[in-house]
Amino acid sequence: MSVATRSSHHETHSAVHALHGFVAESVFAAAREIAQEDGLRYAGDVTPQEAWALFSSGAAKLVDVRTARELQRVGRVPEASHVEWLTGAGMSQNPHFIDELESAIGTDDVVLFLCRSGKRSVAAAEAATYAGFRHAFNVLEGFEGDGSPRQGWLNHGLPSVHD
């Protein structure tokens, strides 16, 4: 590869990287604006498709808050962190959630919370925000959605693995 070709390739790569950064910032800004208008107690909501784009580009961390049993039964997002929001036979709130979250990611990281349908992930985003995580977002629709074939991470054909 010639020097000119390498330089052109580097410039193209840099432009693509800058575009991804611009798109990520646009998604975050729109989500924050809607969250503020709606009075949400966390940074905002993103769609499953936006979440995958942000996570796969490295612009955000993805934390699945479903139970270990749910991950085994239904599948999970590859490379996502896992911190249960509810735990135990009684499905009570995990008393170590924030400590486990702090072990998995930093408080300054952009974090996207995912659950089955989008309810527990809202609670997790609120708790994380209250604990000092400044960039806590909820993934709308969750991993499975509400039963509609048009909702949820899986129904959008986004990457998943089944252990």
Automatic annotation (TrEMBL):
Residues 56-162 form the Rhodanese domain. It comes from the Bacteria. InterPro entries: Rhodanese-like_dom, Rhodanese-like_dom_sf, Thiosulfate_ST/Rhodanese-like. SUPFAM superfamilies: Rhodanese/Cell cycle control phosphatase. This is Rhodanese.
